Amino acid sequence: MFWSRTSVKLSYASPRWICRQNLISQDTIAFTTQNSPVATMEMLCDAFSALIEKGGLAGRFLAGIGLSLPAPIDIRTHSVVRPSVLPDWAGFDISSWLSARYEAPVHVEKDVNLMAIYEHKRNFSDVDDMFFVKAGTGIGSGIITGGRLFRGAQGGAGDIGHIQFSSDHAPLCRCGKLGCVEARAAGWALARDLRAAGYQAENARDVVHLVDQNKPEAIMSVRKAGQVIGEATADVVSLLNPSLIVIGGTLAQTGDFLLAGVRELVYQRCLPLATHNLQIIFGETEVDTALGGAALMVLDEAFGKDSARDFLQRFAESRADS
Ligand SMILES: [Zn+2]
């Protein structure tokens, strides 16, 4: 399942999907943060059950459920960490609530972390230190260090969207601070500037559409966004010394207009030791990488050294019952 700010995308995949993106069934439902967590979860369960039914999978063994959320997650409590776009969800144990209904383990993770997991496992499994940047309607990042996802003390690592650069006329961010990376380079900020220039734009997809139409203001705004993201990424490179930076998210569809700015600032600001063997490339844009990451997370958790025995026992019991 994949949540954005306005919708929930539910998908049901077999393990074979990990190899060839073979989704069995998929649906999208409207979502609003106005509803309580329980009301939202009930709506989500109804839709997920209908999806299983539609896919002809009712009664089949469910390996697990992976949930991707646009918010930092405390993996000890399986709940959203504040502040986030889901303010009423702090402390609500999403995982326990769902697993009680489906008798399957539920794993919850921030969307950008799942995108990083997908890119790392699917495309760059030989890279130990990787930095993934999601440039979409919002901006965030996922950190792979020593071959593993780095979450930080409370799941808040990688929040580059709210690093602030002070300047005259620093724009107001949706977090309430001035001059954040998001307020300068996220899809919503570019759309804001393009509206002021007379274009119709609400989000990152609209910005990509205007770039595809060769609108000069849109191209220039994406170039500048690349430089802002590059400025923040340069500090990350100095701190973490990754060997690979992968740029994903909707704005990655603008191609070199975005990438040129990122590369420019990273190579300009970092010392040669940090950039000597550094690659900066685009990730996959044609697949839903957060969804893929959620499926990979479920499989990883099922066959982890602490959980494989439980998984096999559950599987054997399901076979005996059927
Ligand atoms: Zn901010």
Mean pLDDT: 87
Q: Work out the count of structural domains.
A: 2
What amount of the residues lies in strands?
15-25%
Under CATH at level 1, the class of the largest domain stands as: Alpha Beta
Structural class: alpha/beta
The side-by-side strand order for the widest beta sheet comes to 10-9-8-11-12
Order of helices and strands: EEHEHEEEHEHEEEHHHHEHHEHH
**Ligands in the structure?**
zinc ion
Any idea what the shape is?
A: globular
Residue share in helices?
40-55%
Helices, by number, come to 12
Concise synopsis of the structure shown:
By secondary structure, the chain is an alpha/beta fold. It is built from twelve helices and twelve strands. It has helices at 17-20, 37-54, 94-102, 111-123, 181-185, 187-196, 204-212, 216-240, 256-269, 272-275, 289-302, 308-321; strands at 2-3, 7-13, 23-30, 65-69, 73-74, 79-80, 106-110, 130-135, 139-145, 148-150, 244-248, 279-282.
Write the layout of secondary structure elements.
Layout: E1 2-3, E2 7-13, H1 17-20, E3 23-30, H2 37-54, E4 65-69, E5 73-74, E6 79-80, H3 94-102, E7 106-110, H4 111-123, E8 130-135, E9 139-145, E10 148-150, H5 181-185, H6 187-196, H7 204-212, H8 216-240, E11 244-248, H9 256-269, H10 272-275, E12 279-282, H11 289-302, H12 308-321
Parallel strand pairs: 4-7, 8-11, 11-12
Antiparallel strand pairs: 1-2, 2-3, 5-6, 8-9, 9-10
The structure holds zinc ion.
Residues 162, 173, 175, 177, 180, 182 line the site of zinc ion.
